[in-house]
């Protein structure tokens, strides 16, 4: 059983690759290295360096595979507002190219990397799969369109699929793989502390217990294992829901993360405080009950564990 992992040289993708290998499943990776890093790939993993818009390269990568984990895409929600056409090209047009190649090669299984971005700023105290999507960026919209593409293609051809809506993915399951995003909280804090600078909290007047925003953080190793479970279920023909939230059900505030960073690193700092950023929700927390039922999903790391693994992997030289 061999699966193609698109975007497999990225932070999340490299962890998914490792989870598949640890479970005894072979993988092939396709990645254009626009944000991924070749050094994140384990030695010996077959690798095709190409964008999914290159249909011939995609068809080549699909030779002999039984399913696809589709993670490749442009993942910066804020930047997508300024680059909507690029976002749709990389997240929608490229997915059409992938699905066309899958249909031609008769590959019938796909696990799609969707996003909590499809929900926008939900009013629900805890987001469930029944919460109405309301994306508020081209990125979130493109992920929702990706889910629609799977739904509609499955009506036209035999296609078993499920979409995993991620919340905030953090930490590291391998010290050689780290989150290099310039927009995510954990790498921002790690980078500032490694440089001897002080992290900042944006917004201390949220209607939350400590005044800072509360979001759902899940460890990347837990997330990767969910992909393996979904892939195995699809390959076995087991029924799966169309979408699953991968969230903790509780949430962690920005101040709690700062406190964890202080404990884990031993660096005594007091974060500076600034005004809220426009559009930053006060609370986004998701229930992971369906994923727990069908994918044996659980959030098995504490906030200290999450930050400790992120800090260990962060390049400090």
UniProtKB/TrEMBL annotation:
It comes from the Bacteria. InterPro entries: Epimerase_deHydtase (IPR001509), NAD(P)-bd_dom_sf (IPR036291), UDP_G4E (IPR005886). It is an enzyme of class 5 (isomerase). One of its GO terms (biological process) is galactose catabolic process via UDP-galactose, Leloir pathway. Its EC number is 5.1.3.2. It catalyses: UDP-alpha-D-glucose = UDP-alpha-D-galactose. Its cofactor is NAD(+). Pathway: Carbohydrate metabolism; galactose metabolism. Residues 3-247 form the NAD-dependent epimerase/dehydratase domain. It holds the Pfam family Epimerase. GO terms for molecular function: UDP-glucose 4-epimerase activity. Keywords: Carbohydrate metabolism, Isomerase, NAD. Belongs to the NAD(P)-dependent epimerase/dehydratase family. This is UDP-glucose 4-epimerase. It comes from Kribbella turkmenica. The gene is galE.
């Amino acid at each position: 059983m061999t699966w193609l992992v698109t975007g497999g040289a990225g932070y999340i993708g490299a962890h998914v690759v490792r989870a598949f290998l640890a479970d005894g499943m072979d993988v092939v990776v396709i990645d254009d290295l626009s944000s991924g890093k070749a050094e994140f790939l384990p030695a010996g993993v077959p690798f095709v360096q190409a964008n999914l818009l290159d249909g011939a390269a995609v068809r080549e990568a699909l030779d002999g595979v039984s399913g696809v984990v589709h993670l490749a895409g442009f993942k910066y929600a804020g930047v997508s507002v300024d680059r909507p056409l690029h976002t749709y090209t990389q997240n929608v047009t490229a997915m059409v190219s992938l699905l066309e190649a899958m249909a031609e090669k008769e590959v019938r299984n796909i696990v799609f990397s969707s996003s909590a971005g499809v929900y926008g700023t939900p009013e629900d105290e805890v987001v469930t799969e029944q919460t109405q999507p309301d994306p508020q960026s081209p990125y979130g919209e493109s992920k929702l369109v990706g889910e629609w593409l799977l739904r509609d293609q499955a009506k036209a051809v035999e296609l078993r699929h499920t979409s995993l809506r991620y919340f905030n993915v953090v930490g590291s399951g391998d010290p050689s793989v780290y989150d290099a995003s310039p927009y995510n909280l954990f790498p921002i804090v790690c980078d500032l502390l490694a440089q001897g600078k002080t992290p900042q909290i944006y917004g201390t007047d949220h209607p939350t217990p400590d005044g800072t925003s509360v979001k759902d953080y899940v460890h990347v190793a837990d997330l990767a294992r969910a992909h393996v479970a979904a892939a195995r279920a699809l390959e076995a023909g087991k029924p799966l829901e169309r979408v699953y939230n991968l969230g903790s059900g509780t949430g962690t505030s920005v101040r709690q993360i700062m406190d964890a960073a202080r404990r884990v690193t031993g660096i005594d700092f007091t974060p500076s405080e600034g005004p809220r950023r426009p559009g930053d929700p006060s609370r986004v927390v998701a229930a992971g009950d369906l994923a727990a039922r069908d994918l044996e999903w659980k959030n098995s790391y504490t906030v200290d564990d999450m930050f400790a693994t992120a800090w260990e992997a962060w390049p400090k030289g």
